[in-house]
Amino acid sequence: LMESSRPLILGSSSSFRKLVLTELGVAFECMSPDVDEKAIRDTNPSVLTLRLAHIKADALLAKLKAEGRKDGALLVTSDQVVVCNGVMREKPRDAAEARFFLESYAQYP
After folding, report:
1. Strands across the sheet with 29-30, in order?
2. Where in the sequence numbering do the catalytic residues fall?
3. How far apart are CA 53 and CA 76, in angstroms?
4. Is the torsion defined by CA of 99, 48, 33, 27 positive or negative?
5. Cα(84)–Cα(26) distance, integer angstroms
6. β 8-10/74-76 pair status
7. Per residue in 69-86, pLDDT tens?
8. CB neighbours of 108 closer than 8 A, spacing ≥ 6?
């Protein structure tokens, strides 16, 4: 990967996203966007994930501005959902729902 003089901010508290960047050898800092993702709804998965990523970015940009940061950091935010058999699924609420999701993927590969 190319080195950059601009700091990278991962706008996520996802341990998976942190692991990916770490394994790629990318230097980054994490900032949690602290947004209520369940308050943002859309029936279209592509629209929903894009809206969530933008809302997270807006929240973090406001936080960075309030901190007076002007280092030209590159901010990365994202979101994901799964569509299984035509049903959109977000993060499972608990272990039982996660198990249900995983078992259902075998029925609808």
Report:
1. 29-30, 8-10, 74-76
2. 79
3. 9
4. positive
5. 32
6. parallel
7. 999 999 999 999 999 999
8. 84, 85
